Amino acid sequence: LSPKGTASILIGTLATGTVAGGSVTINGSRGVITSASLTTASTTVTNFDFVNNRIVANSVLVLTITGGGNSGGRPFIAQSTRGTGSATVQIGNAGTAALNGTVVIDFVVL
């Protein structure tokens, strides 16, 4: 803990993966997921299975969209369910236009 009350926590090596066939497997405490190309219509959601050996039923998943090739709509992340070894992640569209590309999601499993 620094004198200012801040700290850094190291939680493992950065792992990466790309969603294919509705699923991505990334085993690690933190990483980056690249979605498949999305065409999600306004006010709807699509989901994918996130397989990770660090996820347990009471895990906290921190998921943040940090980039990607999408230039339409307004994507957002909602975690819908989790269990031992996997979670179902939803990508929604809060915009008026359809999504039209990939999104990049940073994650941490706590």
Averaged pLDDT: 93
Name the quaternary structure.
Answer: single chain
The major sheet is characterized as: 4 strands, mixed
Residue fraction in strands: over 45%
Written account of the structure:
By secondary structure, the chain is an all-beta fold. The chain has no helices and eight strands. The chain has strands at residues 14-18, 23-25, 30-34, 45-51, 61-67, 75-83, 86-93, 104-109. The strands form two sheets. It has a four-stranded mixed beta sheet with strand order 1-3-8-5, with no helix packed on it. The protein has a four-stranded mixed beta sheet with strand order 2-4-7-6, with no helix packed on it. A hairpin with a 2-residue loop joins strand 6 (75-83) and strand 7 (86-93). The mean pLDDT is 93.
